[in-house]
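Quick check before the chapter quiz. The format below is the same one you will see on the exam, so make sure you can read both the input and the output lines.
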Amino acid sequence: MPPETPPSTTPPSSFPAPTFSSVKNVRDLSSVPGSPILPNRLYRAGMPSDSCASDVSLLTAQPPLGLGVTTLIDLRSATELAADPRLSTSPAYSPYTSIKWSSKRTLRESLPPRLKIPDPSLPRLDRATGLPRRERHFVSLMDEKRYVAGTLQRLTKTSLAKLAAAAPGAIVSRRARARGKKVFLDRINNGGLPLLNDLILQMAAKGIRYVLELCADPSRHPVAFYCTAGKDRTGIVAAVILAYLGTPAEAVVGDYSLSDGVYKEMGDDSAMVGALKQRDLDPDVFLKAPPEVMRQTLREIGEHYGSVEAYLDFIGFGEEDRQRLRKALVEER
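Here is the expected output.
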């Protein structure tokens, strides 16, 4: 762990505070106490699909009228995207070129040929507007198959035996299917959000690396990354970045906990959590963001990987990459 970076002494940003009307859970990561990130570099948010006209203006207008977000990163699963009726029609997305990430490609290989540039230091300008080109990257961090596979890996021998006992008759017996499903869901509900976070860190490694590569590119700033409520997958990405940059652990915990009431604000009892339908999960477990969840997650990063830096090595985001990220986020330009 590098020495803690002291809180930024940069004066308050001239950019407007992210006070959105319809988009939930939006905040600048420079606002986290002790965060060295400079204003208007990185935002975390809930999905902007339901943006009203004032939200669209705040998101896209150039400072000082808006945030002028250049890059959107959508962390939702294909199931969630398919369930979003405004995925293609929301005016919030219309200024952005959509790019679908593939886990089999690097950042540069994932870009369509017409968007590639020979030198990453060159400005990426839109020919029509002369402004930085706007992109929306789809980077699914957790889908149903990964969640199921990861949870099965963590089932105890006793639970596996129960699941196997139910399996032979599952095709013909509704009762057997219900027993098998109960064993599986009991494991998910008992593991709760710490299990979900652990699965994201392990199984979404390539996606997280891709997101960090985008965040480390100054020409793509400001960046806003989001999932459905901006709580779990968004919270993990924010926590990894903040922790690496030396933000105090309790400040990282506090930032996570600000998402505690976001599902209530959304009024969505059928929201997707970890890419599984809410009706299958315990809402008292999965709709909240208690501080102990992030404390446990940070502890487990240390226990499982050794440090945040070691975790970043694990996902292939090495020292040189980390220095680019630090420079992009904390240095004036």
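If your answer matched, good. Strands lie at 27-28, 42-45, 71-74, 97-100, 135-138, 223-226, 272-273, 276-277.
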